[in-house]
Amino acid sequence: MAKRIAVDKARPGQILAEEITRQDGVLLAGRASEITEGLIRMLGRMNIDTVVIEEAERRTREDILGEWQAELERIGRAFRRAADSPELGALRKTLIFLSEQERDKALASLELSEPAEGGEGAAAAGEGAAARAAGAGATPGPGQTSGGGAGSAADPRPDARGKPGARRPKAAGKDR
Questions:
Q1: Domain assignment of residue 24, yes or no
Q2: What CA–CA distance (Å, rounded) separates 169 from 176?
């Protein structure tokens, strides 16, 4: 859905629903372009008063949590046969961690746009614990481990050869 707004109300990251042209027809910004600080300044200097932006669809807390739950289920299905592989287990944990970060970011954005009613923040924070209790497992972030230290099988960081969690032998004595 498109909405016409004043240029001084435009914010970086919004998406143009219509192209912006000068009076002589020269294209300044195309449809579907992302609005930047520089574009806002330029439009102000050129006395362009309004732009048409794509209005973001309003998501509810239930939408966000439902999408996150579906993502956890997709991850679970994709990795159900990977129980014997420490590398794939580490990748699964990283994907779960990233999905939790996206969920938390979406919930925080929702709370900023609409004040939450009492206690919802605590409920959202408990969602990650509920998923882990349901079998999703611990969710270390990229570069974090689940107890084995750097270089352990659970370490999702690649070594110099690009292999996750593999140890690189140290050279003895001479520099190579």
A1: yes
A2: 13
